[in-house]
Amino acid sequence: MSNRSEIRPGFADIAYANRRRRVNFLDKIDELINWKPIQKKLNKVLKRKPNSVGAQPYPALVMFKALLLQSWYNLSDVQIEDSLADRASFSVFAGLSLDHGVPDSSTICRFRNLLRDDFSGLLNLINQQLAEKNFIVKEGMIADASIVESSCHPVKQEEVELPEDKNEAPEIVTTYSKDTDARWTIKGKKSYYGYKAHVSTDNNHGFILSGHATPANVYDGHQFSRLVDDSQLAEGSLVIADKGYSSEANRAYLAENELLDGIMRKAARKHPLDEAERAYNKALSRMRSKVERVFGTFKRIYGLWRSRYLGTAKVEAELLLKSIAFNLKKAALLMLKPEVCP
């Protein structure tokens, strides 16, 4: 590629543009999103300057779109490199000329790591545009969490550390894998080793407002206030959550921030729920299906039942990148087929 910072179309691109084909969600995303603010933020984060000395990098927006394609189709770094080279629709969406080369897997990996701490800001930028087009209406949110298993198979290892004082007993250190941030948890009488993905969605169409990751043994209720803060709700918004978030502290937090309490009621010892409370929970449960569909899509289509990377920071970056991809595709499919909500 003679100049990667200015990828100009060639004869192959013109031929492809004139070829008749079915409009897909990638075309709709390009119609829907103004990429200039995204490109500006990417360049600011990466601190790239035009006409810099040395080999020219691929444009930041091209690399970001490659990460989106990787998320939508659940591809590894090697697979997205091959797909960019083999599939014309991938190259056209990313902004790569069919007459030039594509970024290799190591370049894609390094770019994703450089953006690791900035996917939350990119999600907010995308959501702002979706809100302006009335896809996201922040009249409330739904909070939930789901387990993401570690990419490392847990194998128990015990090492004996001898103390300096011979009179002291040796210390036994137990580890399970190279993924030292991951932790064990039990759900439904089954043990899992990994992380929890904590997500909030709007209660209209189910677009993702915020998300973060923690080790799997972290209590969901302690992550509630962070989800609400990151969702940036207006006063008077309804906040829905299941019984796992039911606590006096969380209800007091909602009252202090003038938000409506939609946390399901939880029975206590010798204080079962009455009929009205059971009916209230049943009504909220129907609304919670929107966030449950998000996790279903993550695990069934985006492969997020298991993490690709090690460590809480990288798992959170993976979650946020897939959240951006989820929101963009959902909006595009609503444009193509309004009755379809992935």
List the helices and strands and how they pair.
Layout: H1 11-17, H2 25-32, H3 35-46, H4 60-72, H5 77-86, H6 88-94, H7 105-114, H8 119-132, E1 140-149, E2 157-161, E3 171-175, E4 183-187, E5 190-202, E6 208-215, H9 224-231, E7 238-241, H10 248-256, E8 260-263, H11 275-287, H12 289-300, H13 312-336
Parallel strand pairs: 1-7, 7-8
Antiparallel strand pairs: 1-5, 2-3, 4-5, 5-6
Helix pairs in contact: 2-13, 4-5, 4-13, 5-6, 5-7, 8-13
Task: Please tell me about this protein's structure.
The protein has helices at 11-17, 25-32, 35-46, 60-72, 77-86, 88-94, 105-114, 119-132, 224-231, 248-256, 275-287, 289-300, 312-336, and strands spanning 140-149, 157-161, 171-175, 183-187, 190-202, 208-215, 238-241, 260-263. The protein is of the alpha/beta class and 342 residues long. α10 (248-256) links the parallel β7 and β8. It folds into 2 domains: 11-115, no CATH class; 137-313, Ribonuclease H-like superfamily/Ribonuclease H (Nucleotidyltransferase, domain 5, 2-Layer Sandwich). It contains 13 helices and 8 strands. α2 crosses α13, α4 packs across α5 (77-86) and α8 packs parallel to α13.
Question: Structural class per helix/strand content?
Answer: alpha/beta
CATH homologous group name of the largest domain: Ribonuclease H-like superfamily/Ribonuclease H
Mean pLDDT: 87
| Assembly state | single chain
Please count the helical segments: 13
Helix proportion: 40-55%
CATH topology of the largest domain: Nucleotidyltransferase, domain 5
- Global morphology: globular
Distance between the termini: 38 Å
The ordered string of helix (H) and strand (E) elements is HHHHHHHHEEEEEEHEHEHHH
Q: Are there runs of 5+ residues with pLDDT below 50, and where?
A: none
Number of domains: 2
The major sheet is characterized as: 6 strands, mixed
CATH architecture of the largest domain: 2-Layer Sandwich
Cα-based radius of gyration, to the nearest Å = 23 Å
Number of strand segments: 8
Name the CATH class of the largest domain: Alpha Beta
Strand content: 15-25%
